[in-house]
Amino acid sequence: MIESPASLAVWNTLLASTAEEMGVTLWRTGHSPNIRERKDFSCAVFNAAGELVAQAAHIPVHLGAMPESISAVSTLAPWKEGDLAIVNDPYLGGTHLPDITIVEPVFTDDQLIAFVANRAHHSDIGGMSAGSMPIATELYQEGLIIPPLKIREAGQLNEPLLALILRNVRTPTERRGDFDAQFGALKTGATRLKALAYRHGVRELARWMEALTDYTERLTRAAIESIPDGDYHADDVMESIDGTLLPIRTKLTVTGDLLTVDFTGSAGEQSSSINAVSAVTRSAVAYSVRCLLPTNAPSNAGIFRPIRLLLPESSIVNAMPQRAVSAGNVETSQRVTDVILAAFSQALGDRIPASSAGTMSNFTFGGLHPNGESFAYYETVPGGAGAGPKGRGESGIQTHMTNTANTPTESMEITFPVRVRRFELRENSGGKGLHQGGEGVIREIEFLTEANVSLVGDRRLIGPPGANGGHSGKKASNTLVSAEGLRKPVSGQQQIQIRPGDRIEVQTPGGGGWGAPPKGGHRRTAH
Amino acid sequence: MAKLREKVLGVDVGGTFTDFVAIEGETIRTWKRLSTPSAPENAVLTGSEKLTSGRMAHGSTVATNALLERRGPRTVLITTEGFRDLLAIRRQERPALYDLEPKRRPHVIAYSDVIPVHERIGADGKVVIPLEADEITRVVKKVAALGAEAVAICLLFSYIRPEHEIHLATALRAAGVAVSASHEVLPEHREYERASTTAINAFLQPAVRNYLSGLDAHTPSLRIMHSAGGLTDSSTSSKRPVSLVTSGPAGGVLGALAVANEAGYSEIMTFDMGGTSTDVSLCPGEPRYRSSSEIDGLAVHTPMVDIVTVGAGGGSIARIDSGGALVVGPESAGANPGPACYGKGVLPTVSDANLLLGRLRPEAALGESVIPNLDRAKEALAQLGEPATTASAVIEVANATMASALRRVSLERGYDPANFTLVAFGGAGPLHACELASEIGISKVLVPRYAGVLSAIGIATAPEVIEVSQGLLLPLNNDASDQILLTAQALEKQSIAGLEGAGGNLEKLTWAADVRYRGQAHELRVSFDKPTPTSITDSFRSTYSREYGFVSQDQSVELVTLRCRAEGNFSGLPYWKNNAVPQTDDKPTPIQLSGGVAALHANREALAPSTTLDGPAVITQPDATTFIPPGWSATVDKSMNLLVTPS
């Protein structure tokens, strides 16, 4: 029996809007293109015990990872008003190094009432290549590792620590602006929570924070219960740097309102950067389950309560410390989602679509402006969404574990020495089916100076599978087009030194088709 | 402020009713006619009085509806080669994060109706690929072959260097094609947003032109309300129909501000609650403006009154979800089937809850509509629990949603709601206003005398406005002075010419700019007296500090877009001598709210100035109901507005 259905809804609105408002501040004041244009960040509210209460709908890959950053910084207790903790260590609550998390304890009259946190993808965190998404073999090459530390103590900024961080990154001014934006967003969240505590009392606030996690738990259990009991298996592959196929295997076991997700049989950890830390795998599982919940459900700790995760140690879905991880966050997380949804589709065929692009097609570049200042840029390129029972897949759209916006060409060319030559849908790349998969895109960028480019993207060997008789979407391809017009294929994980006039062309995968294709096929229709 | 001298008729077309207000000297009259959605001009023309002098100011949803229904001619987009799918890819985000099958709303131009052009301007304004004469000829032929009735042109960096767009537009116009060119519609940076706005403008032109020319023929001086919160003539509106798309709620905000000013309040928040949604805005002395929004999934960038809309209204449906929470809206029973109490629907709504609690009075139903049925409301609410408890809970949840909108327009932008007066209107606004005010710490609620036709009043009394802009993207330092000055001169000339060309007289010229720290992508709209680097920077720092709570002294500041707003023909509201007397002498009658709470029910038309009424009380008028909760009391002011405060 729920004690007050109305208060539950009211508190859901209050805490969800607190998290959203933090996001608005961060978005509007951020400097990295990743933050300001692409909204590659997350904002969340935690109770005093560090349990996730509300997380704004920003980037799903942070969903399971934010709670771990709070437990990681808990070693810094006791807290004082005005403290701020910083962390990016993927093995201590992080995701990959460019994602920097800042946590603020919130006090009312010397009493700790909550934590607010945000995690933002910074354009550069040092390491072996500009943009910090290198083709690495160990974590140390990927950039500066920040263990949980206080970046501000009782209102006093830790200048030496800040200086150390800024000296280790390629674009210190931009970093500084992003930190200010992150601090400002936390202040917004803390102010709102203090007002709530003042208005309703600390005990009421604590009580309803707890009630909201119970609420999400009930919604999650109800969603799991709607799946018939049984075991559901699915597997798919990731492509290793040398072209071998690495299995990602899952077994879902539904027993009443409990779900066990077992990744036994998945590939071992790699000496490249496609390793996912456990927090990333957790995020992908949480995202897949969250998609089954109603729209207004708060994303919080309640999701995890009826789910048991079995992650084999030293595997590609649970890498051990010091493994490189930058691409695990963006690539392996997509495949984990694909296999969970594929397993769900055996039970919920009328709800689950075919596979989407399944890669974020990460494109990173950096170099020196003619004036000697360095630049670094990172983007993810959209693909096709999988078609589903409701209709065709959308084309040129971010799917599953990311939802970052693009940087307008008119912003990009003003900021960086590049020219965007082409950004169009990739015709007929969607998998055929009763409903066709969405089309990927073709993105071609010309460099006006020398630059160092990293390309990391999966689905270069095998396209996203269709469902229910639908065909696969077209696989991806990367090409280096020289100033003279010579085309040279680039692999799914490669770093290239670029000369002025060279172009990189990225073709992203189409989504899988759904249902058997009709005879005679489809005509390409309007979007 | 100058008062109205000539007779003016304000007309606001709504989904159900078309509202009219006639203001002449110190006389105001209002009336309503049923709307005629298939040909809205019919209700406008048959309801209007013949005007021999003065003007008719008109707010129309014709552009908004045509866009929502994607009703328009075959429209072609001409864009830079390589960017054919600008309107399909947009900003590449999916609209709902956890939707397994995300769907974008279609744009107004079909995939196959895009013509890429071989040309390119660079970020520095230099020509990278020239636009050859042969290419222009090819494009003109292609447009003819496609049989397009309207054409939008959006080329990369045309806001810096428009010459390629100009060549194409000139050639197409010479061939007799209606053209919207992006450097004319929105000379600002970001190609998708500019292309989207330009495409919508091209798409809406025929419908808006036909509609307005039909009205123009019957009305000597027709003024059209546009989204920047002002009026202009029909020829300007026909050329820029996209500026009518978001004009709907602007009338209400202006009406609320006019009434509040006349009553002696200048800092207000507006709260307009209707059947399916609620519009709120904050006016610190004047409306706030912004320059971007999204309508039905499409980017529309045009200056508009900054209004936040949430999906909570009288028709919002209440249900208990699988986690045991009471959810209200955004699903709405709309007009059909409507709330359960009106006879067709069966699901409980906010209106059913208000009726059950005794706040909506069946005896005061609006003339032509159905009398609400208490038993049906009770039956619907009983599906969720004990009816009276459920009804209070439904109100509480709907209020929380609306309160979050009021917090967004105030706290999120750095304003403390405690300093504002809440002006409540729309059919249901005054029902919820006092409880909402307590929720967010406001202690004054103003319910205008004409709460049901406030938008028509706002339209009638709006100034003439033209706002023009130019994208610049300049660092704000002394080196920028000259370029800012030159741009400002051009904008000033353009805005005054626009205002006077549309028949207005310049009374006020104001400056605004979209400004950011170098490296950011989001601009703040700030206003200032003189377009100089120093005054723009100062205004930016203080606005930034208010909105975000911090400023950076060492980061350089960048001017993105300069805006000039020319206003004229202010009217303001007269004091309505004629109507400041009660129209009936009905005495308040005792009623019972749910739970047997004793209250008074008064007819708004019977309340003379200076009357005071303590809550709990319900005050009804033909098109709105005001609820005074216990602990609040209402006083009637000289213009017969209600001022409600905690007693």
Walk me through what this model shows:
The complex is a heterodimer of chains A (527) and B (647). Chain A is α+β, with helices and mostly antiparallel strands and 527 residues long. Chain A folds into 2 domains: 5-217, no CATH class; 353-527, no CATH class. Helices cover 27% and strands 24% of the residues of chain A. Chain A has helices spanning 5-29, 33-36, 66-73, 159-167, 172-200, 202-225, 278-290, 326-347, 409-415, and strands at residues 41-47, 52-55, 84-87, 99-108, 111-121, 149-153, 156-157, 230-239, 245-255, 258-262, 307-310, 362-368, 374-380, 418-425, 441-447, 451-456, 477-481, 487-490, 493-498, 503-507. In chain A, the strands form 4 sheets. Chain A has a 7-stranded antiparallel sheet with strand order 2-1-5-4-3-6-7, sandwiched between helices. A 5-stranded antiparallel sheet of chain A has the order 14-15-20-17-18, covered by helices on one side. In chain A, strands 8-9-10-11 form a 4-stranded mixed sheet. The longest helix of chain A has 29 residues, at 172-200. The termini of chain A are far apart. Chain B is of the alpha+beta class. Among the domains of chain B are: 68-211, Rossmann fold (3-Layer(aba) Sandwich), CATH 3.40.50; 464-566, 2-Layer Sandwich (Dna Ligase, domain 1). At the A-B interface, helix 1, helix 5, helix 6, helix 9 and strand 14 of A face helix 3, helix 7, strand 21 and helix 12 of B.
